[in-house]
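To: structure subgroup
Subject: Chain for Friday's discussion

All,

I'm putting the inputs and outputs inline so they're searchable in the archive.
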Amino acid sequence: MLQRAAAVAAGSLLVVATDVVQAPNDKQQIEPMVEKIGALPAALGEAENLLADTGYFSEDNVEACEKAGIEPAIAMGRQPHHPPLAERFAKAPAAPDNPTPVEAMAHRLRTPEGRALYALRKQTPEPVFGIIKSVLGFRQFSLRGLDKVRGEWSLVTMAWNIKRMFALAPAY
């Protein structure tokens, strides 16, 4: 089973890093992607936050983000779709004293700012993958072999980026 991965910039929805792996889950994908993001030219800016769903959560992944100077917002478990109003508008809990990186992230995710930041995950990578599937028509790989598939995924995300840059360009 091949897993596609893409790091998407929140402001522009451009894909800034990609990979394809044969791992059965996403837990081992954060550290290699953080390294790819760190290797990008400085002119592109620095990654401030990493937003990921619960499939990427592990203590090692949180620590890898912290080590790279990126603030992680990784869901620690399944979240209900419709939390009660009292929970939605509750004040942020007090920050723990001397928290571990995981405890600090868990606290951030319970603050209004952290919830708002994590909510961006639904509107950042998800539309990119959806548009690649439905508009560009890319639903499966045509090539065989991990290196060839990685090349194909790079080509698909490059096509997305060209399409997106055209949409972002000011009209003349």
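Points worth raising on Friday:
The longest helix spans residues 146-168.
The helical segments are 30-38, 59-67, 85-88, 101-110, 112-123, 125-134, 146-168.

D.
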